[in-house]
Amino acid sequence: MISLLITLLMAVVIGAIGSALAPGAMPGGIIGSMIAGFVGAWLGYLLLGSWGPVIGGFAIVPAIIGAALFVFLLGLVAKGLNRTA
After folding, report:
1. Of 24, 40, 70, 84, which is most buried, counting CB atoms within 10 Å of its CB?
2. Which regions span the lipid bilayer (predicted)?
C-alpha cells in the first residue's frame, strides 16, 4: 500500500516538474500532473532508458525529461486545435 502511495506521489512530482520546465501549462491540476508523470516516465524510458536514481519505480531524470516533452507536445497539439477552431 505504501509503495502505491509513493508511486502516485512521485508521478505527481515528476509531472509538476515537467510542466514547470516546458512552455505552456498542463491542464487538470494534480490529476493532470499525475498523468503527465506516468506518460513522461514511459516516454522517457522509451527514449532514454533507465539511468539515474530510481524512486518509486521511476528513473527520475528520464521521467522528468519525458514529462517535459509530453507537456510540450500536448501544448503544441492544443495550439493547433485552437487555431483551426
Report:
1. 40
2. 30-48, 55-78
- C-alpha grid cell for residue 39? 506518460
Q: Which of 27, 56, 58, 25 is nearest to 40 (CA)?
A: 58
* Cα–Cα distance, 44 to 14 (Å, whole number): 11
Distance set, CA 80 to CA 25, 62, 75 (Å): 15, 27, 9
d(CA 68, CA 24): 10
Residue stretches of the chain with pLDDT short of 70: 24-25, 84-85
Alpha-carbon distance of 25 to 55, in angstroms, equals: 25
